[in-house]
Structure formats: C-alpha cells, structure tokens
Write a structure and sequence with these properties.
Chain B: Keywords: Membrane, Transmembrane, Transmembrane helix. Chain A: Keywords: DNA-binding, Sigma factor, Transcription, Transcription regulation. Chain A: This is SigE family RNA polymerase sigma factor. The complex is a heterodimer of chains A (181) and B (361). Chain A folds into 2 domains: 84 residues, Rna Polymerase Sigma Factor, Chain: A, CATH 1.10.1740; 87 residues, Arc Repressor Mutant, subunit A. Chain A has 10 helices and no strands. In chain A, helix 1 packs antiparallel against helix 2. The longest helix of chain A has 23 residues. Chain B has a domain of 180 residues. Chain B is 9% helix and 40% strand. Chain B contains 3 helices and 29 strands. In chain B, the strands form 7 sheets. Chain B has a 5-stranded antiparallel sheet, with no helix packed on it. A 4-stranded antiparallel sheet of chain B has the order 4-3-2-29, with no helix packed on it. Chain B has a 4-stranded antiparallel sheet with strand order 9-10-11-12, with no helix packed on it. The longest helix of chain B is centred in the N-terminal third of the chain and has 16 residues. Chain B is globular, with a radius of gyration of 22 Å. Classes of the chains: A mainly alpha (181), B mainly beta (361). The interface between A and B is large, with 57 and 46 residues.
Chain lengths: 181, 361
C-alpha cells in the first residue's frame, strides 16, 4: 500500500515551494494570502501524496490545487470587495518612467480581473503552460481556457485603454495570437 | 510589447521573499484529514447478494468462544444496520455484544462482523459466537467484504502469501496461493476476488476456481468492485497524478470531476466518494457524472457504505473533529439524510468503523 513519507514530502516542499509561491502570489496579489494559499495547497498535496506515484511531478498537482483553491476562496470570500491591491514593487532595472507606469497599471488591472481569468492568464503567460496544461490545472475544458484568456486580455486592454488610449492595443498580445495551440 | 504582461508578472513574482511555510503543520493537518476520511471509509458493500459457494472448503479451527450477548443479531446484520466498535464491543441495531477480542479493524457482513485483533488474528462473530478464522498483517490489515463473505491476505510464517476468503454463512474457508510474496487482496465482488500479485492485477473466481490476469497497468489502484464494475484510479502518463475510472474493463469511463471512490453501490451503478478531498459526492459509473452531497448541520460529512442500491450511510461531525462525537446517518440518493445513531463517540475515544483497515492507516 502506498504510504505518506513526511521526509520525502518535506524535501519536495523545500525544492519547489519558491516557484509555487510565486504562482500563488500572482493569482491572489497579496503576500500573506499567497502564503496561506500555498500552505493549504501543500497540505492537500500531502493528503494525496500516496497517489502521486512520481513525486518529482507532484508540482503539477500542487499547481492545480493552488489554482482551484484560489478560485474557490475567491467565490467564498468575495475578495473583490474586501482585499487590498498591493502596488507593484519598484524594482525595474533600467526601466524608464513609461515602462514603470505601464507595469503599475497592468498589475493593478490584473488584480481586478475575475479569478478564473486571472488564473488562466498567469498559467498561460507566467507559467508558460500550454492550453491543455492550463485546462488540466484549472480543472476545465480547453475551450474554457481559450475563452477565459480572451476575456481577460480584453478586460486588460479596456482597462489600459483608459490610461494609454489607442496605444493600449500595442501593450498586450492580440487574443488570437496568444491562444495558439 | 507582447512581453509587457510577462515582464510585469516576472517583476511582481521576483519581489517575493521565500515563503514561511510550516511543513510539520501540513503533515499534522494532512494526517488529521486522512484520519477523518478513513474513519468513514467503510469497506466493501454489505448488501450484495449471497452466492452459494462451490469451492471445496476447509474446516475451521475449533477455538470457538461464547460472546456475552445471548440474543441473536441475525436480523440487524441482514438488514445492514450501521455498526461501530469500541474495544471488544460491537454496537448495532441499538444493542451491543462483546466479541471477546479487541476489534482493531473490521467489516460487516450479512451474518455479523469479521475483524482482526492487534496481533493479526482474524475472528468472525455473529453476536453470539466468536470464531478464529485466520491471520493477516497485524499492523496494516485489509479486510474486504461482500454479502456473507470476507477476503483478506494471509502472510508469511514461512509459507507463501495466500488470498483467503471466509464465508460467514457457511463457515467455509478457501485460499489461493499468490505467485509473489508482494500480494494483496484489493476487493471482493460476489465470488470474485480482485488482488494485486506483484505488479499484476488478478481476478480469482471462487465459482470456477480460475485465476485471470487483468494485466500489469503501472500505478493502478483498485478502489472497489461491485456487480462487475471496477472503480479504479489510473495514473497520468505525464505528471504521475491519477484519475478515477469506472467500467467492466480498466480505463473504460473517466470521471474527470471525481476524486476517489470509497464504496460502490451493490448494483455498481453509483460510486460514493469525494469530488475533491473531504468534499462528499456521488458519481454515475456509466457516465462519470458527479452529483454533490450536501448534509446541513455538519462541518464534515462523508458517505462510507451502502444499505441498498438507493441508500447509503455516512457520518457527520463538527469541529473539533477529533473529540466531537460522531453521528451515523442514512441518506437516500437524491434525497435527505436522517440520523440513525447519535453521538456514538469520537475518533479520539477509539471508535472503530467497519472499513476493513486500521483507523490509524
């Protein structure tokens, strides 16, 4: 019978938690919340540990749990009404004012997206997952990923349009280009 | 400019300090959740029809004991009334009896209970009489029941590992030697025993005496088998995680929104289990469609067995889960639940439920 091995699990946490933490942060936009999300997601991974035959691939499972848990938390807590929006750290190396401003606006706009759209965009553009991998992580169909990415990018474009006018279209990838298989 | 989105996310992510995680808390909490779930994982259906055994039986040992309760329990066991055990006491149908030995892990049959004690001795009790019927792993027993029969793995003592089936209705014991030492009974479906023998999944038919190989699918887990329907998990090729399937053949019907099966209905049409960890749900084994289970009034509920094809049983408990007494409930598929036994004791007080494995496993 497969057993839970706390030592092997702890090794996995030590090795992979920094990367998973970054993904969690991008999905929720708040440091403490991201840490709580990662703690909960890794606990679920430990519960499922005997079923994750290849422990080297447990990261994919944890990423899926982070995504689905973040979406669930959002539904339960109505984060839109309660959560603060953290500002983007000003650590751009060599960036000029326009670039900094664009990133600030884009970061704020990203945090205002509905959670499924935000998750889809994080998984596709930060994690560089394919549409199929994103669908697996979000526990949904590939078609849903396409529509969530498309809708998310459209909202970002609209939001940025308020600030950058017609140039906003140049700041983000066209929807059809980014949902290629 | 297409890099702006990625650059923005990279910049935000790179600003993070290392997370302050508590791995010990994850392990403690994970073990607690597993314990709560297993508290309820009643093994194998107690309601399937009894099929007459035709295998040549061996005689049972004669070390019979009298249980302390003189009144028969045949009717309550035949009616599949929910039971639980504390120490050597078995509680069912509003009464209890002393089985004569500490109940470490047990299953319920149509005739009574079959249990292993902390030394690995396997006993059968119908409420008036307790009989020694075999041995299994002391620390990690796995008993599987269907109708009046119970199957387990007999290990060691210098002999080959053996799959053992005991019929509590007739007293017959049958055995089949495994081909490897690394073997384990996984499920019992009428007269068919499903087992792992090394890497091979095998079906041993008591009716015909045949042993059939179901192949060597890497990473497969058989969760339950009823009426020929096999609830199982198959690993993904890419990431090592598993997905649940149902079917008379392996890999037949995927249930993408299901997490795991805890017990199949006697007719094999409905899987009682979870849609994700600690979230109770039913799944249609023909289509894989999932229906959530909602039981108001409990912080945690899990279904763990079947009374008949339309009625399942489960437990409900509120926080703190380890110390709050459990309620046993009976629920109709698509209907409501009613409490059948209230405050039977807490997980911390040593309550044992009939899922066939150690409560600590």
């Amino acid at each position: 019978m497969p057993r839970r091995d706390p030592a092997a699990f702890a090794e996995f946490v030590a090795a992979r938690s920094p990367a998973l933490h970054r993904a969690a942060y991008l999905m929720v936009g708040e440091r403490q919340l991201a840490q709580d999300l990662l703690q909960e997601s890794l606990t679920k991974t430990y519960v499922a540990w005997p079923r994750l035959r290849d422990h080297g691939k447990a990261e994919a499972y944890t990423r899926k749990v982070i995504t689905t848990t973040a979406i669930t938390w959002y539904r339960r807590r109505s984060w839109n009404a309660e959560r603060p929006t953290e500002s983007l750290p000003d650590t751009v190396a060599g960036g000029h004012d326009d670039a900094v401003t664009q990133r600030e606006w884009l970061w704020t706009a990203l945090q205002e997206l509905p959670p499924r759209q935000r998750a889809a965009i994080v998984l596709r553009f930060y994690e560089d997952l394919t549409e199929a991998q994103t669908a697996e992580a979000m526990d949904c169909a590939v078609g849903t990923v396409k529509s969530q990415v498309s809708a998310g990018l459209a909202k970002l474009r609209d939001r940025l349009g308020d600030r950058f006018g017609e140039h906003a279209d140049d700041l983000l990838p066209p929807t059809l280009m980014v949902v290629t298989p | 400019m297409t890099e702006l989105l990625k650059d923005t996310m990279d910049q935000a992510a790179d600003s993070l300090l290392a997370p302050d995680l508590d791995v010990q808390a994850m392990v403690r909490e994970g073990d607690r959740r597993v314990g709560r779930r297993r508290t309820a994982v009643v093994g194998a259906g107690v309601a399937a029809a009894v099929v007459a055994a035709i295998a040549v039986p061996s005689l049972l040992p004669q070390d019979q004991q009298r249980a302390t309760e003189p009144v028969g329990f045949a009717a309550v066991f035949e009616a599949h009334q929910p039971s639980w055990a504390t120490g050597s006491e078995v509680h069912v149908g509003g009464r209890s009896f002393d089985a004569g030995h500490q109940v470490f892990a047990y299953v319920q049959t149509t005739e009574g209970v079959v249990f292993s004690d902390p030394s690995g001795q396997v006993w059968a009790s119908n409420g008036t009489q307790t009989v020694g019927v075999g041995r299994t792993d002391a620390e990690h027993p796995r008993l599987e029941a269907d109708g009046s029969r119970v199957a387990w793995t007999t290990y060691g003592d210098g002999r080959p590992t053996e799959f053992t089936v005991y019929d509590q209705a007739t007293g017959e014991v049958d055995g089949l030697a495994a081909q490897t030492g690394d073997a384990e009974v996984l499920a019992l479906d009428g007269t068919d025993v499903y087992a792992r023998d090394g890497r091979e999944i095998v079906r041993w038919s008591l009716a015909t005496g045949t042993r059939t190989s179901l192949g060597r699918p890497t990473g497969i887990e058989i969760e339950d088998v009823k009426a020929g329907v096999i609830a199982h998990q198959l690993p993904h090729a890419d990431d090592g995680a598993t997905s649940p399937y149902f079917g008379r053949e392996l890999g037949e019907t995927l249930a993408p929104d299901f997490y795991q099966t805890l017990a199949l209905s006697p007719d094999g049409t409905t899987a009682l289990g979870e849609s994700e960890a600690d979230v109770p749900a039913l799944a249609d084994t023909a289509t894989g469609a999932v229906t959530p289970i909602t039981v108001p009034g409990y912080g945690f509920f899990v279904g763990f067995g079947w009374v008949d094809d339309d009625t399942y049983v489960g437990l409900g408990v509120n926080e703190p889960y380890q110390t709050t007494p459990l309620d046993l409930l009976e629920c109709e598929v698509g209907g409501t639940c009613t409490v059948t036994a209230e405050a039977i004791g807490s997980a911390a007080s040593g309550v044992v439920l009939p899922f066939g494995q150690s409560m600590d496993d």
